[in-house]
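User: Could you go from structure to sequence for me? I need the amino acid at each position, not a summary. Structure tokens:
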């Protein structure tokens, strides 16, 4: 069971010390090390910390974590987002899925289809769909980025520009009221700009933790995106700005109505 006072204290300690050890926390709270490991796993899923051997560290907010680490953060939220995003898809569509944990979760949903044309710059997504579905999968060229198995660079951009997609599904690093959709690094931002110009619907997948963050690169204004798929309805100021930019917000409470409307576009 979740012990909220203990979790709050662990968050306070790691915010102060930047690093905690399982053994030290177990002694501090007079509980087993296994209990502390469960606490750290729970807090990692909330994006509070990053587990390392023997303990955990405070993530650096200006740096995006490796894909393997990010995939452990909010897995249920990303699964729900992927499920919602899949309602926009029909057999025979041409899709682009860029690299990210939410798009990887969506790729799992695509295994229920068999006649999609999928282009991706993610080695992980390409491998998953090739091994577990009959969809036609094309991998972009590019330089392999080790921390997330993404293919990036000028060859990736040139290849992506050759096609027109029914839907381009994209992850994002942050959503800021003033700057719009933002990323940690330039390569993914450049690709997402290209994709937004070569698709019928540009779709951003983002969990609630992305709202209110401000990262390094201004990727896309709100007006460049058709649909935002998220697991929780954002705050009113974000809703106002997104609706003003004609962005459809697909979330659990409005899933059926929005998906029905978008399918007619």
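Assistant: Here is the amino acid at each position, in order:
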């Amino acid at each position: 069971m979740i012990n909220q006072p203990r979790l709050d204290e662990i968050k306070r300690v790691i915010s102060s010390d930047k690093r905690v050890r399982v053994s030290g926390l177990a002694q501090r709270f007079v509980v087993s090390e296994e209990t502390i490991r469960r606490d750290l796993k729970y807090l990692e899923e909330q994006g509070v910390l990053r587990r390392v051997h023997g303990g955990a560290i405070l993530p650096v907010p200006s740096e995006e974590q490796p894909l393997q680490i990010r995939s452990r953060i909010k897995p249920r939220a990303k699964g729900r987002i992927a499920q919602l995003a899949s309602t926009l898809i029909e057999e025979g569509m041409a899709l682009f899925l860029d690299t990210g944990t939410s798009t990887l979760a969506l790729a799992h949903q695509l295994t229920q289809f068999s006649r999609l044309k999928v282009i991706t710059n993610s080695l992980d997504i390409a491998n998953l769909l090739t091994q577990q579905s009959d969809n036609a999968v094309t991998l972009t060229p590019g330089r392999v980025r080790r921390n997330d198995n993404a293919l990036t660079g000028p060859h990736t951009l040139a290849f992506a520009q050759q096609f027109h997609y029914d839907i381009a599904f994209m992850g994002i690093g942050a959503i800021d009221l003033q700057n719009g959709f933002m990323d940690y690094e330039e390569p993914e931002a450049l690709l997402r700009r290209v994709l937004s110009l070569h698709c019928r619907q540009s779709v951003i997948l983002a969990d609630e933790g992305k709202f209110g963050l401000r990262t390094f690169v201004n990727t896309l204004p709100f007006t460049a995106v058709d649909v935002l798929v998220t697991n929780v309805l954002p705050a009113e100021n974000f809703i106002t700005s997104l609706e003003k930019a004609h962005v459809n917000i697909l979330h659990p409470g409005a899933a059926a109505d929005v998906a029905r409307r978008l399918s007619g576009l």
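One structural detail worth keeping in mind: Residues 18 and 244 are 40 Å apart (CA to CA).
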